[in-house]
Amino acid sequence: MTGRSFTFSHAIARRPAATVVDGLRAVDAGAPDHSSFEQHHADYVDALRSTGAGVEVLSALEAFPDSVFIEDTALCLPEGAVVMRPGAPSRLGEAQAIAPHLVKHYGDIRRIEAPGFIEGGDILVTEREILVGRSARTDRDGIDALRTIVAAWGYSLREVSTPHGVLHFKTDCAVLDEETVLATPRLSATGCFEGYRVIHTAEGEEASANAVRFNDLVLVPDGFPRTAELLVSLGYNLRPVRNTQAAKLDGGMSCLSLRFSPRADLPSEDDRT
Ligand code: CIR
């Protein structure tokens, strides 16, 4: 099927906890405002739902300030789901908390085991392969463990680098269609997108790279007009979403959801019981 890297029947999001004010951040630009974050999050969920997908919103997890960034906890492919092992110690428990929510969708749920670390934000699934950026959160053992799991489902995985000082690989890129990625110039300069059509973010608008193609929409963080104009001129159906609160914690569009289409011919764990 073409478009499988951006065609989704389901998504899972998690409401921001009140403790989100204590979330991890590379540079302290002040704590996010919880109530604004909740409004932005609701807009985000509405945008996903507007494409016809079923979107489940999980309750907030107060013990985990960064748990709204649910993408980092799992990789969901049509064949099965993989529970990650986050490299940030304060986020390790978030991975355990996602597993029970995957059983109604999947019969095959795997886990990244110690000693490897890997976070979903470092994983870009394109039409032809899975790219994983090594970063401060994702190491070689984690990548090798994921490679073994996804190889059994027929995917090839390529290890690439997340630029120094960039949180996750997808902080700086997103899939736009079967052959096109949106990327910052600093990431594409590493050569990781050879063979792809690359659209660059406008200068000074690097944070717009953390977009997400979800069915017919491209969700982009609001406030990056030149990149937005370029994408519209290329024919993409843009949906700007307010993101100022998540941005204080280095979060963008992709990190706020798990997006997936489980294969209808494979029974979920719930179907079996
Ligand atoms: C963190 O540092 O883990 C969070 N404050 C932000 C995580 C963003 N996740 C993502 O882009 N996938």
Question: Can you characterise this structure?
Answer:
The chain has a single domain, classed as L-arginine/glycine Amidinotransferase, Chain A (5-stranded Propeller). Helix content is 22%, strand content 21%. It contains 7 helices and 15 strands. It has helices spanning 34-49, 92-102, 140-151, 185-188, 225-233, 244-247, 269-272, and strands at 10-14, 54-58, 74-76, 81-83, 109-111, 123-125, 130-134, 157-161, 173-175, 180-183, 197-200, 212-214, 217-221, 238-241, 258-260. Strand 1, helix 1 (34-49) and strand 2 (54-58) form a beta-alpha-beta unit. The longest helix has 16 residues, at 34-49. The relative contact order is 0.19. The site of citrulline has 20 residues, from loops. Citrulline binds at residues 23-25, 66, 69, 71-72, 88, 91, 120-121, 167-168, 171, 249-252, 254-255.
List keywords for this structure.
273 residues, alpha/beta, L-arginine/glycine Amidinotransferase, Chain A, three-stranded mixed sheet, 15 strands, 22% helix, binds citrulline
Concise structural overview:
With 273 residues, the chain is of the alpha/beta class. The chain contains seven helices and 15 strands. It is globular and about 50 Å long.
Q: Strand share of the residues?
A: 15-25%
Helix content percent band = 10-25%
According to CATH, what is the topology?
A: L-arginine/glycine Amidinotransferase, Chain A
Please state how the strands of the largest beta sheet are arranged side by side: 2-1-15
CA radius of gyration = 17 Å
The H-and-E topology, N to C, reads as EHEEEHEEEHEEEHEEEHEHEH
| CATH H level, superfamily name | L-arginine/glycine Amidinotransferase, Chain A
Q: What is the class in the CATH system?
A: Alpha Beta
Cα shape: globular
Mean pLDDT: 97
